[in-house]
Amino acid sequence: TAARWRTRCRELGIGEIHLAFTLAFDSFVPRDIGFDAAIEFPPNNVVARDITAQVKRLDPNFAGRVHDWRSLAAAPPMLPDDAGTLHRGVCTDWDNEARRAGRGRVFMHAAPRR
Question: Among its keywords, does the record have Transferase (predicted)?
Answer without folding.
Answer: yes
